[in-house]
Specification:
The protein is mainly alpha-helical. The protein has two domains: 3-43, no CATH class; 50-80, no CATH class. The chain has helices at 3-20, 24-43, 50-65, 72-80. The protein is elongated and about 65 Å long.
């Protein structure tokens, strides 16, 4: 979605709010939902590029096939040293 399309969509949502939300209770509920959505967006981590993910997965599969892996117990011991 382009910036212009996004801004147009925002204005349409504002118009809908102005025309259809006519009570304090409904506006309070809308504000609460908006706050939740905003918090979720802030917590999202950036996505890993697909080519990097594929490369890492290929490397992991190769290491697994070569027997270069840790058991759960070995990993737990390693993590305890951190």
């Amino acid at each position: 979605m382009s910036t212009l399309e996004l801004n147009t969509y925002k204005l349409e949502l504002l118009r809908q709010i102005m025309n259809e939300f006519n009570t304090e209770a409904s506006l309070r509920r809308l504000a609460a939902v908006c706050c939740l959505i905003h918090q979720e967006e802030e917590q999202q981590l950036p996505a890993m590029p697909a080519d990097l993910l594929c490369q890492l997965m290929d490397n992991a599969a190769k290491q697994d096939a070569e027997g270069l892996y840790m058991t759960d117990e070995q990993l737990e011991k390693e993590m305890q040293t951190w």
